[in-house]
Every structure is written in structure tokens, then in C-alpha cells.
Amino acid sequence: MSSHKVRKAVFPVAGMGTRFLPATKAMPKEMLPVVDMPAIQYVVEEAVDAGLHDLLMVTGRNKRSLEDHFDRMPFLEAQLREKDDTAKLEAIQRPTNVGDIHYIRQGDPRGLGHAVLRAKGHVGDEPFAVLLGDDLIGENESLLKDMIAVQERVGGSVIALMEVPRESISAYGCADVTEVEGEDYVRVNTLVEKPAVADAPSNLAVIGRYVLSPAVFEVLERTEPGRGNEIQLTDALLELATMPAEQGGGVTAVVFRGHRFDTGDKLSYLKAVVQLASERKDLGPEFSAWLGEFVASRGEAK
């Protein structure tokens, strides 16, 4: 059982976003709009909704617009106030009111494990959440809340898993797990980073939500670079899975079966825009009607 409540969230946002070039040549990938909000705002609001208000972004070069998005803009606010445009005023103030946001540079791009390690000075000796900006979780899903509840009950570290088609598993970290009778989590036995399909122990993929024991920092400090010459968080989690609970070890997982979008992938990004727009009260009815007509016309054209 954890002796600390989970209060802090870390967002590794230093990546270059090369899969979305040329759009990300001058814009951080996390700032790509999903309908009318940047992807990172959905992720930050997910953390805040789970009760986390101490937020650390691990950034890199060319991320200034990301920091500006979560900052005040007094001149624009004053203009909107003068025009009595309450809706837009609330929209631009929304990201500035999420909590205490701190920033630190990753420096050398040495992988996700290195980005998490950079958070050590801010996090200290308490469990914390890590949210990857590429993964959007459905607004009504309770994944992060469920993971925090498991960590506070069981201790150690908690990861999120999702079933994927077997042929797609080589794009993910993959977990071998054991069911825990009567519980809503599973025990993680081993993890493999991007295995060949034939070597994968399951079709359970690691997705971008973690609740980590502070013991991960000591492990990351001695973790040698792995795939891509980067410090892999998966390698550190594999060691934590074998460590005694009294040393902060043990890894459990919540298997997620809800809506998740990989906004770092072009097709999944487009699906996220379409689904979220369809669910909006202000856009949904008209957009859905148009979308149905458009799809029907494409079918007739064939």
C-alpha cells in the first residue's frame, strides 16, 4: 500500500513529431488541434479531472507555443470582455486555470525513460502519474482515476494495457500478465518493447498512461540505453516488476477497454477529430448529417 497520495502529473512533450511533418516543422505536435482544442489540453484536463493539479511538462526546443497556450493573455481577454464575448473568454481562460504548471527542458533526446528521469527533482519521493500527449482517452472514461486507485491500494507502479490486433503488437510495448482473482487489475510478469509478432507474449499493448513509484528514478539512473539507443521506460518497469514491494517494486496493470486515440498517427488523429466533433452538442448534429451525406455520396461515386 502506498504511503502517499498521487498528486503530481508529468507530461513528456519534448518529441519532434516527425510523423506529422511538415505540419510540425514549426508547431509542436501536442498543439495540433483536435476540433478546436490542442491535443495536449485534452490530456492535461484528464489529469486535472483525476485530481492532479501539480503538473510538470518536460519540454524541448520549439515548444514555446505550448507554454504560451497555458499562460494568460491579458490583452485578448480584455478585448473579449469589452465585446461581452463570454464563450470565447471562458475558452481561452480554461487552459490557464487547470492548476500549477511547471516546465523543465529534457535536453538530450534520450528517450521516454530519460524524460521521466528529468522529473525526479520536482516529483521527489512520492508516486506520480505520467501521461503521454499522443494518447487521447475518451472524456467519459475513468482510466487514470482507476489506475490511481489501484496504486494507492496496492502500491508499486501501475501501467495501462489495451488489447490490440496481434499483427499490430510490434508497434507497442507488450505485457505478459497474470489475473488476480477478485480484483480489477492484473499482475505484470514481464514486458517486451516492440517485440516481433512471433515473440510477443500477448496482444496486450502498453498505452500512454502510467502511475509510477518513485523507485523508478533510481532504476532509470542505472538503466542502460536500449532500443534506438534510448533509455526505455519499459526496461525500468521490467526491473521494478521483479523488485520487492518494500523497495517500491511490483507492477500491476489496468486493462483499458474504452475509447483511445493515438494522435501521433494520422489515421487515428482524423478519427479522433471526427468522433469528438460528432459528440459535440454545438457541432454534432449538423456535422454528423453532413458526414453521412458525404460518405453516401462517396459510395454512389464508385
Q: Could you explain how this protein is built, in words?
A:
With 302 residues, the chain is of the alpha/beta class. The protein folds into two domains: 8-264, Spore Coat Polysaccharide Biosynthesis Protein SpsA, Chain A (Alpha-Beta Complex), CATH 3.90.550; 268-301, no CATH class. Helix content is 35%, strand content 22%. The chain is built from eleven helices and 13 strands. It has helices spanning 39-49, 64-69, 74-82, 86-93, 112-117, 120-123, 143-154, 215-221, 233-242, 266-279, 284-301, and strands at residues 8-12, 33-34, 37-38, 54-59, 100-105, 128-131, 135-137, 157-163, 173-179, 186-193, 204-212, 251-255, 260-262. The protein has a nine-stranded mixed beta sheet. A two-stranded antiparallel ribbon has the order 2-3. It is globular. The termini are far apart.
Number of helices: 11
How is the largest sheet built, in terms of strand order?
A: 5-4-1-6-11-8-12-10-9
CATH superfamily of the largest domain: Spore Coat Polysaccharide Biosynthesis Protein SpsA, Chain A
Give the strand content.
15-25%
CATH topology of the largest domain: Spore Coat Polysaccharide Biosynthesis Protein SpsA, Chain A
Spans of at least 5 consecutive residues whose pLDDT stays below 50 are none
Largest sheet at a glance? Answer: 9 strands, mixed
CATH architecture of the largest domain: Alpha-Beta Complex
